[in-house]
Write a structure and sequence with these properties.
The chain is mainly alpha-helical and 498 residues long. It folds into two domains: 56-342, ABC transporter involved in vitamin B12 uptake, BtuC, CATH 1.10.3470.10; 348-479, Orthogonal Bundle (Arc Repressor Mutant, subunit A), CATH 1.10.10. It contains 20 helices and three strands. The chain has helices at 2-43, 56-63, 68-93, 99-121, 129-153, 158-182, 193-196, 204-223, 225-233, 235-240, 245-262, 272-283, 290-314, 320-338, 344-374, 385-392, 396-408, 425-448, 456-463, 469-479; strands at 383-384, 412-414, 420-423. It has a three-stranded antiparallel β-sheet. The chain is elongated.
Length: 498
């Protein structure tokens, strides 16, 4: 019932804010169409710009950074990507990935209100970037505070609170933009560029502002790196150590707001959250250590912003924000596939390696149990493929594959006559070790887990392949009184040899 009521509230809020906006937008479209259709047909024919590729000369000018505006845009977006990558790691570990989305959407009414206030005080100066960013920052912080209040003082969960605040603030901002368009000065506002971003409009003063904010963000992140580490991994432990958890969380949220605000003009409020999350998520595929993750995320964020701005410089009709995010998505795909820690190929390789190790263990233990029942001179005895197939209920093709791999590892040698083989000294030593570990674990389960001897073999077989050296040493200490270290315990259950 609680989840249903939350969903219903969310839907109602969307309806309340979307219906009047749609009506107003439809009226604007219809009136503009009626008033402008005749004039368009009278004065000029409708033309559509053709899509053209950039020339070699233009490509070289962009790559060599000959144009001043290109250098300004690349430097500004690079700083933004660098800071977003660093702050995004802490947000990802705090499981607040969508908080940047809330800040971005909540900043829209702040931009609109700041424009109205500045235009009312000083007509013609409503588009001052510093004032608009101040309004965006205040509204973004207000959105974060509202989310915290809803989560703390109501029974609504954080994801529902994020959705509610995001929708309400963005709906309010869209309504204010519609009102601004009706004002005398609204036609020249151009505030819609903050929604999807327009990095081409960056000037030197804008980049200076981005550089100052980026420097502050980097400095705070470096000075409070240890504190943020404790906050992200164990908030309760950080509180017991006397760290001001609430104050640290407030600083972290302020960094998110700062990065989001400086990214509004270049990336846009709809896509800035992707610049916060994609580099951080990509770094998880390469490392588990926080310092390395932060460095990798910063590199991916900076490279995404730098390389994503180049296509926009070559093709002006491409949005810079979208190309930056697409480049970040490309890096994410590379990390997903080739990441050395959690990449798909790395996990597949580990799976094959683990499967090969498990098969080798099962083969050697089966060989030892067969030889144990035949003779004490295991190294001179011969085992046939049919014996292994009957003992382990394996397919003959799998047995031959395991034997081939074991022969490559010099654990056994093929007998010159027929499908027979025998263990080498190295293979026999490994087989004894595997059989000993398996039986020690069986005895431990029988004594301490109260598992019947008839069922313990399967339970031990599922666990023995993941036992590390520390657990094996503990098992030896537990059972060394009854079974000396060099003696292999007898199996607690009957071993089938056929």
């Amino acid at each position: 019932m609680r989840q249903q009521s939350q969903r219903l509230l969310f839907v109602l809020l969307l309806i309340l804010f979307s219906v009047p906006l749609n009506i107003t937008a439809a009226e604007n479209v219809s009136t503009s169409h009626q008033s402008g259709a005749s004039s368009q047909h009278k004065h000029r024919p409708s033309t559509r710009s053709k899509w053209t590729l950039p020339s070699r000369q233009k490509i070289w000018r962009v790559i060599s950074l000959q144009d001043y505006n290109t250098r300004v845009v690349l430097f500004g977006t690079f700083l933004l990507g660098l800071c977003a990558g660093i702050v995004g790691v802490f947000m990802l570990l705090r499981r607040r990935s969508l908080m940047g989305d809330v800040v971005g959407h909540a900043s829209l009414p702040g931009i609109a209100i700041a424009f109205i206030v500045m235009e009312s005080i000083s007509p013609g100066h409503g588009k001052t970037l510093f004032g608009l960013l101040i309004g965006a920052a205040i509204a973004g912080l207000l959105g974060v505070v509202v989310v915290s209040i809803i989560v703390r003082w109501t029974r609504i969960k954080e994801d529902a609170a994020l959705a509610i605040v995001l929708s309400v603030f963005f709906g309010l901002g869209a309504a204010l933009l519609t009102i601004i368009q009706k004002m005398p000065f609204g036609s020249s506002a151009g505030l819609q560029s903050f929604i999807l971003g327009k990095a081409a409009s960056l000037v030197a003063d804008d980049v200076k502002l981005i550089a100052i904010v980026s420097g502050v963000v980097l400095l705070v992140a470096m000075l409070l790196f240890k504190e943020f580490r404790a906050l992200c991994f164990d908030e309760e432990y950080a509180a017991t150590q006397g760290l001001p958890v609430f104050f640290l969380d407030l600083i972290l949220m302020s960094l998110v707001v700062a990065v989001t605000v400086i990214g509004l003009q270049s990336v846009g409020l709809l896509l800035v959250v992707a610049l916060l999350i994609i580099p951080a998520a990509s770094s998880r595929f390469w490392s588990d250590e926080l310092g390395q993750m932060t460095f990798i995320s910063a590199c991916i964020g900076g490279a995404s912003a730098l390389l994503g701005s180049l296509p926009s410089a070559l093709l002006p009709y491409l949005g810079t924000g979208s190309t930056i995010i697409l480049m970040g998505s490309f890096f994410f795909l590379l990390s997903l596939l080739f990441g050395t820690r959690r990449g798909v190929l790395q996990r597949f390789r580990k799976h094959l390696k683990s499967k090969r190790r498990v098969g080798r263990h099962d083969l050697l233990r089966a060989c030892y149990e067969l030889l144990e029942a035949i003779t004490l001179q295991e190294v001179d005895s011969v085992i046939t493929i049919n014996q292994l197939v009957a003992k382990r209920s394996w397919k003959e093709s799998r047995v031959r594959k395991l034997l081939y791999q074991a022969e490559k590892e010099e654990l056994l040698i093929q007998h010159p006559h027929g499908d027979k083989f025998q263990l080498t000294e190295q293979g026999l030593t490994e087989a004894r070790r595997i059989a000993r570990n398996h039986r020690m674990w069986e005895l431990f389960l029988i004594r301490h887990a109260d598992i019947a001897p008839g069922h313990v073999d399967r339970d031990a077989d599922e666990i023995e392949h993941v036992l590390d050296l520390d657990i094996i040493e503990e098992l030896q200490k537990e059972l060394e009184k009854d079974f000396p270290q060099m003696l292999i315990p007898q199996s607690p259950h009957t071993i089938s040899t056929s």
